[in-house]
Design goal:
The complex is a heterotrimer of chains A (291), B (304) and C (473).
Chain A (H helix, E strand, L loop, with lengths): L16 H33 L3 H4 L15 H8 L2 H32 L5 H10 L5 H14 L7 H4 L7 H12 L4 H8 L4 H30 L2 H6 L8 H6 L9 H28 L9
Chain B lengths: L1 H22 L1 H21 L2 E3 L5 E3 L3 H9 L1 H32 L6 H13 L2 H11 L6 H8 L14 H10 L3 H12 L3 H9 L4 H28 L4 H6 L11 H10 L4 H29 L8
Antiparallel strand pairs in B: 1-2
Helix pairs in contact in B: 3-14, 4-8, 4-9, 4-11, 5-9, 9-11, 11-14, 13-14
Chain C lengths: L2 H18 L10 E13 L6 E13 L14 E7 L6 H14 L3 E7 L3 H12 L6 E5 L3 H6 L7 H4 L19 E2 L2 E2 L1 E7 L2 E5 H7 L10 H11 L12 E4 L5 H10 L19 H15 L25 E6 L4 H6 L5 E4 L12 E7 L6 H12 L1 H7 L8 H6 L8 H6 L19 H14 L5 H19 L1
Parallel strand pairs in C: 3-4, 3-5, 10-11
Antiparallel strand pairs in C: 1-2, 5-13, 6-7, 8-13, 9-11, 9-12
The chains are: A mainly alpha (291), B mainly alpha (304), C alpha/beta (473).
Chain lengths: 291, 304, 473
Amino acid sequence: MMAPGSLVDSSTRVGFSARRQRLRIASYAIAIGVAILFLLPLYWMISSSLKPEYQVLASPPVWIPNPVRWANYPEALSYVPFGRYTLNTLSISLLTVLGHVISCTVVAYGFARLRAPGKEALFVVLLATMMLPYPVTMIPIYIGFNTVGWINTILPLVVPAFFGSPFYIFLLRQFFLTIPPELEDAARIDGASLLQTLWYVILPTVSPAMATVAVFSFQTSWNDFLQPLIYLHEQTKYTISLGLSFFRSSYDVRWAYLMAVSFVTMLPIVIVFFLAQRMFIEGITLTGMKG
Amino acid sequence: MKPIRTGKRLNLRRNEAISFYLCISPWLIGFVLFVLGPMLASLAISVLRWDLLGEASFVGLRNYERVFTRDPLVWQSLKVTTIYTAVYVPMELVGGLALALLMNQKLRIERLLRTVYYLPSVLPGVAFVVLWMWILHPDVGLINTLLSYVGIDGPRWLVDPDWALTALLLMSMWGLGRSMVIYLASLQGIGRQYYEAAAIDGANYWQAFWRITIPMLTPTIYFNLVLSVISTFQTFTSAYVGTDGGPLDSTLFYVLYLFRQAFQFFRMGYASALAWVLFVIILGLTLMIVRSSRRWVFYGGERE
Amino acid sequence: MSRLSRYAGFVVGVILLATACTTPEPQIIERTVEVTKEVEVIVTSVPEVIEKTVEVTKEVEVVVTATPEPLPDGAKIILRVGTGDSGEGLNPHQEIIARFEEENPDILVQLEAVSGRDYYTRLFTQIAAGDAPDIMQIGDDAVPNFVDNGAFLSLDDFISGEFPLDTSIYLPGTLDPGQWEGTQWLLPKDFSPLAVYYNKTIFDDAGVAYPEDGWTWDEFLETAQTLTQDTDGDGDTDIWGAQLTANWTTGFEYFIAAAGGSLISEDGTEFVGYMDSEDAVQAVQFFSDLYNVHKVAPPPADFSLWAGGNSQFGNGQAAMRLFGRWPLAGYRDNPNVDLGMVGVPVGDERANTLFWGGFGIFSGTEHPEAAWRFLRFYAGEQGSDVWKDWAIPPVAAAAEAAGLTEDPIEGVWISELDYLVPRAYVFTPYWGQTADPALRKALETVLIDPDADVQAVMEQAAQEAQNALEDQM
């Protein structure tokens, strides 16, 4: 029997193994089929990144670039200084992740575990802050940052992360709520202080969710366009997404270059995700919860 | 004995309340600084007529009046946005969950597969949309080319007012990987002792699924539902980059219309009014979901 | 590694990265100066109205830039220049900046580039906060709006001042878009009228003579029809006669003007009677027929891309293309196209429209004189000397010296400048909010629906534009 979400080893169950085999094959087939569907656009992207520009929109479409234009990559990457932009984006993203992980975990713990008057109302307020469309608060916020002289620095992009973000707070709170509080109670009874409980008991259990937040936060910051657009003025401070916009002027899209750079800038996140999977999907420490 | 116990309890409650406010203080401070202030400012702007470059003049509720009575495009954009959200949110829920279930089994190449599914969500928004604009190209795009191999003459997608919204929906399906990841993390968190107990009791796959998996997942489903509704109602990038609201306003999303009013038509006051109307709508929808959550969300770890 | 050391390492790494990315701030010198002015004052608080002149003394902060005297080391004036160009399009800017900085060592120019539509988003945000670049680039149809809202400094005084500019050096029509209500506000950066590209290979293969300057709409249609072919007999058109401008609204004004019509009344108050006039309807009908009846134009691929996102001409699958000068460099390098150039066809009248971008000085700048010096360099002979390698320079002498006027391809863009008519935005500051969306919808309707009644569509467009206009007033 294949129970969903289960790590049960069912090999001891005789008579179900045939059914299990069939399910397994079916699962493989579906999974790979869907994967191919997902990969097709990606193949298109990579193949076009290697085509000469006039071949990108050729009709009938060309599946395999001919000639293969490897030069697209160095040319696209030097169209604007992407090395510099990558460093900029990296520093902004890492700082943002740090801010989010620290602040959101603490705040989410409060919402999940602690009782206080006004908590429900504040939670609704938290959700409500996600509902106001960005283009509208954009200008008052910009004026605010301008008044303190933070324009043309990375501060407006990074500092707010240290004050939490509703999306991640919500995610972490939900996660906290799925963990029985008995663990913490047990630790407290054993004499641990709040801080010790936090560090030794809670953090390990929440670390998958924290890792999820880290990956999402990194990725959102890495790809962010609107904020760097209005806050960063000097070209030396630009991020990758701003650099990408240079390929898309109001009349023309340099498809091949755009695809090449998109592919290259996608790689770090993909690698991070692939490696980090262990942490936040597989690595839940089943902390000895007795049934 | 009794008075002392009551006193200690009260103290604990108060300490807990203080701890709570301490915990959430970063968010509270940030809220006042980065959210409340600008929100109030935008509310103030919504009763003005301001074109960003020059002077502002007070017009009272005229902007709101215009939103509700004199602007047919508002209704068009609400229609577009609502239809899109109503279709997309369930699709994302079911699709993301299905993918997560698929990925939760111990297939050997699962790590690779998961990365493949998540890959598209990693692309920067603009690159994602531009890639799809091209895939949906009526003459040389991937989709119509594939369709032509099986003899179907594909629609003109983003140029056809009847198909443009469907095209955008198709495009967004490629980004399912993100919700898959969230469901996966939760699936893995369901204690195996429940399944073991169910197996002992002789439950089969479907029973285990409906009686254990789904209930244990309800907090995550709730989370995804709320977030999905809120963010899908504010869809912007795919319409801004891909269709600019066309053709013939068939993909005129509400936030796109708002943006256009603010930055292309220089009507900041009107745009702010539009934003607040949207805010109230989303707030209403969310409150409905939150209220209903008491009945169908099951928390394993909440204190009674 | 223990968890603690992992976290610590992470934090340290982040701090190191952050410090590596901060840049030092340069210095600026400011002095305070007393300025005395005579001001005319009208006093109405007494029964009789008195006019008198009053002397007003103010302290004004001035940045010393009038003459390039050497400033103390490390102190330079920084000029910020905002532009919507991107990629290779930035190269001429960079070169001009480099040359300027060499001749003016007291000034550093910092180029802030953002491409396309996003440029305006950022620009508005900056202006709203009072923090715009000293020199800003804007497109022609944004001029009235920006000027009316005081975003730019008038250039008239500068032109006749200490660093004068001889305005007669410019090609015809290239200064006009930078003028508004009698004053010069911007100087030209680049510009383009419309013209027709043609692919000689396709003409040769079909044995058709190349088009000649002054050709008519009828000749255009005939040529396009002859050249539209189904070469492999599968029922689909393989070679198209002419790639047109799809739903591009301002590009469509040429068709209206060539039919002898106009989209708006001269006083800028009426669309009804103009947008749906006989001439306008005739133009739209001709345009629509090219797509739907004669089928010489490939259907648009994407309405959000400029001019429909078609790619046939670049693929060697269209014999002609009616458009501006922007893709010229790409077509020259394209092996599919053997390029020829000719002016736009003549309808009832010979007309063309100009598309233009220019630079002006932000009214809130702290360095008006330095900004003017740069602007004058940029838009004058020195700048044109660089521009001639990239585009048609606005200075006539530079264009001639570079042989562009005689060139069979480039010369067309210059000769078309003799037939310019004013664009519709000149007559109303509300073009973008009123006529533009209405016209765009109308064009998209006739492009999507071959059976659409053009008269009805244009009447509706005129009414919609009129309603929107009345809403603005």
